[in-house]
Amino acid sequence: MTIDNNSDENNANRNKSSGVYANANSMNSNAMPYVQIESEVPLLPFPRMTPPVSLLNAATNLMPNANNGLHYGTENLDADWFFTEVEIKIKMPEELKERLADDWEAINEQSKLLNIPSRITAQDVVDQYVASKTSRKSVCPANAAIVTEVMTSVVQYFNGMLYANLLYNSEKRQYFEILQKHPNIPFSQLYGAFHLLRVFMNLNSVFILSGADENHKQTVIKYLQDFLKFLVRNKTIYFRMSNFIKASPQYANAAIVAEVMTGVIEYFNGMLGANLLYDSERRQYIEVLQKHPNIPVSQLYGAFHLLRLFKNLNSVITLSVADAEHMQTILKYLQDFLKFVVRNKTIYFRMSNFIKARPQYEFLL
């Protein structure tokens, strides 16, 4: 394919106060593995969001914050990047901000998905850029090695963090379908330029380079910024709205379910110690925290404790969600979740899960 290094197009005017710019700048989610249980519908892995995203607290799904490395507002979209504890700042070109906004609108407002496998993959884009920088006879071998190293790190991050950091909720179901169809193909050879561009909003403590001196730092900045300029020059090739397809309704429903149940898990993790334990369980709770200090309690405690949450969840929703339609959507899926639990009660609620407590557990020290 011939890469056009001089092409340009007129950017469509977009109202930057509409929230699209701000909302188009964060991918926040992680995944947990499948659990084989009875269900009337195909199951998706339970999402574990970092940083927390919740319908229960009416939080905006896709907003910059201090936890995900995004430190910009709607008018200042500079990202902070870190390489071996060296801070590197890269400015996102205005043309690419437009592409991110197009991407966000298509996925989140128009209920579309990107066609996967992509006609031009993320690996293709990176390979074409590296070739453009290393194929000339005049190129310095050291610079060729660095640009290759930097872009290899981008691809490694992309492959390792696609699900956790680079997908919107409504894309998760498609992800697992792609994973089942192409289990041995790296995501960089399946997903395309729009997903690759999302990497540049999330890079944070990613690269481990062999040197961290000032010259090396400036070289890294040079090539990262140059890669973004390369994307700008070729935006009409890489960022085509024709790459989006209309998503079927089940994809949107999967996104809502994921968000609602993520709120449940957030509340569970935050309130277990204060609201969901009997007095005789508190000593065990302290011991569990000491043994597993970095593991969310939702990955340690089970269905009986989760069920206790629903005794006072209504009051939490009432206090957190002002919009009546929003509240009804939440209640709909929470009620459906309880029906799901009923269908699988013999799996989740086994009395054999209980053990005889030692006498010291009867009192909190």
Automatic annotation (TrEMBL):
It comes from the Eukaryota. One of its GO terms (cellular component) is nucleus. Signal peptide: none annotated. One of its GO terms (biological process) is regulation of DNA-templated transcription. InterPro entries: MRG (IPR008676), MRG_C_sf (IPR038217), MRG_dom (IPR026541). It is found in: Nucleus. Keywords: Chromatin regulator, Nucleus, Transcription, Transcription regulation. Residues 80-244, 251-354 form the MRG domain. Residues 1-22 are annotated as: Disordered. The keyword Glycosyltransferase does not apply. This is MRG domain-containing protein. It comes from Glossina brevipalpis.
